[in-house]
Amino acid sequence: MGKIIGITGGIASGKSTVTNFLRQKGFEVVDADAVVHQLQKPGGRLFQILVEHFGEKILLKNGDLNRPLLASLIFNNSDEREWSKQTQGKIICQELGSLREKLAQTEDIFFMDIPLLFEQDYASWFDETWLVYVSPNVQLERLMKRDNLSNEAAEARLASQWPLEEKKKMASHILNNNGSRDQLLSQVVSILEGGDTHARD
Length: 201
Ligand code: ADP
Hints:
By secondary structure, this protein is α/β, with parallel strands linked by helices. About 50% of the residues lie in helices and about 10% in strands.
């Protein structure tokens, strides 16, 4: 029987490190962020809906969406957050659902990387949910380094997300990424080979 695995985590927790490795191993991985970016490009299913809702002010001179402006309009207003959750959420869910159906026909096992897997209630789609976990101080340090952010800016991004401790209670498997990349990837190999992660603590 086929297996569909959801991968999640927080910003800079190591999701891409895991999914890059899985792709190298030949597995199909759906990247929900990339799907959303495609949908929000001119011609994509979300583009026109967003321009109609927010007006042309959310467009850059070259006609693409001004993504940071869009993010701040939604992030800073609870009505817009609700609108976005309903309207964008529904279309994103449909798109991810059709990718899932398509891959289920050809792949024995495949993965979907969904940063908001628990927040947006996708858990029931999966046979297993893997959380790429890091402790708050490691996450802050890696986020500052990767995105070249100040301590304050990085803290603000982390504060807008569910704490990984919460997600830890919900995931079926936990990949502990406080150590080295090799340590992280050997946990992936171990789960794939049917072992456990030994990382729930
Ligand atoms: P995400 O996709 O969850 O946002 P990334 O996979 O991009 O996270 O990892 C965040 C940053 O931390 C990247 O710069 C990555 O190279 C680095 N990183 C990931 N895992 C480790 C690790 N075990 N040790 C050191 N750096 C790591």
